[in-house]
Amino acid sequence: MKPQKIVIKLGMPSPKNRTKAMVLAAKVYGVSSVAITGDDKDQLEVVGVDVDTACLVSCLRKKVLRRADIMVVEEAKDK
Q1: What phi, psi does 52 have (nearest 5°)?
Q2: How far, in Å, CA of 73 to CA of 6, rounded?
Q3: Are residues 13 and 42 in contact, defined by beta-carbon separation less than 8 angstroms?
């Protein structure tokens, strides 16, 4: 199975909420890397194999942020 890249737009993130979102995403099964991207530092980029995207976003909405939207799910490219 190939790794996939998931980009999630975070609504109104503070530095504290960004950290919480990264910690929560890092604990999800299959995740190999987590990063904050975007011009406004409002996107969470998750790379992993067999990651349940819907579950990840649902957990982010419940525990960290009220808004979290899936922007991109694609095959991760090798650097």
Answers
A1: -85, 100
A2: 5
A3: yes
- Amino acid symbol at 14: S
- Backbone dihedral region for residue 26 (phi beyond 0: left; psi -120 to 50: alpha; all else: beta): alpha
Give the C-alpha distances (Å, rounded to integers) separating 27 from 46, 53, 79: 11, 13, 24
Residue 8 near residue 46, CB atoms below 8 Å: yes
Sheet strands (E) in 1-79: 4-10, 31-37, 43-48, 68-75
Q: What amino acid is encoded at 2 in this protein?
A: K
Q: Which of 9, 3, 27 is nearest to 65 (CA)?
A: 9
For residue range 22-59, what is the model confidence (pLDDT) as tens digits? 999 999 999 999 999 989 899 999 999 999 999 999 99
Which two structure tokens, joined as six digits, stand for 37?
A: 């991207």
What tokens were used for 1?
A: 């199975």
